[in-house]
Structures are given as structure tokens and as C-alpha cells.
Amino acid sequence: MITPYHPPVKYSVQIDKHKTSISLEPVFWDMLMKEAERLALPINALVAQIDAERIQADTPPGLASAIRVWLVSQA
């Protein structure tokens, strides 16, 4: 089992045919995969949805921060 205090790891994702990488702690990546499974969405599709929501904010955070906030708000 990986400790929840593991430093961020880079993961590759694709948003609308654009490849990018995000740095997330493994615990957040695991949470993201579980949410994608629960919603029956591919990881890339869920990340694209979160990305679309974050760019609507008055002061959009970075993608990794938006993913963390989105995950915490699902709890």
C-alpha cells in the first residue's frame, strides 16, 4: 500500500485530442479512477469534464488543483 503522503506523480491524459500531463498524489489518482468507474466514464472524459468546469471559474486554478477540489467536493 502506498502511503497517502507520497509526492505527486505525473500522469498523461488527453483532453479533446490534446495530450497533457498532470501531477497528482497517488491517493488523488486512485480517487479519480474510482469516480470515473462509478460514473462509467474513461479517465480522459472525466478529466475533460473537470477541465471544462474549471475554465468557467472567475480565476481558474490549474488542472491538478481543479481535480483535487472536484474530488473533495464529491465526498
Give your account of this protein's structure.
The chain has 75 residues and is α+β, with helices and mostly antiparallel strands. It has one domain (9-74). It is built from three helices and two strands, in the order ββααα. A two-stranded antiparallel sheet has the order 1-2. Helix 2 packs across helix 3. It is globular and about 35 Å long. The protein starts with 8 loop residues before the first strand and ends with a helix.
Structural key phrases:
RHH_sf, 75 residues, RHH_dom, two-stranded antiparallel ribbon, globular, single chain, 3 helices, alpha+beta
At a glance:
Residues 9-73 form the Ribbon-helix-helix domain. With 75 residues, the chain is α+β, with helices and mostly antiparallel strands.
The main sheet orders its strands as 1-2
Amount of helix: 40-55%
Largest sheet: 2 strands, antiparallel
Strand content: 15-25%
- Terminal-residue CA separation: 22 Å
Tally of strands: 2
Report the order of strands and helices.
EEHHH
Global shape: globular
Mean pLDDT rating: 93
Count of DSSP H/I helices: 3
Radius of gyration: 12 Å
* Number of structural units classed as domains: 1
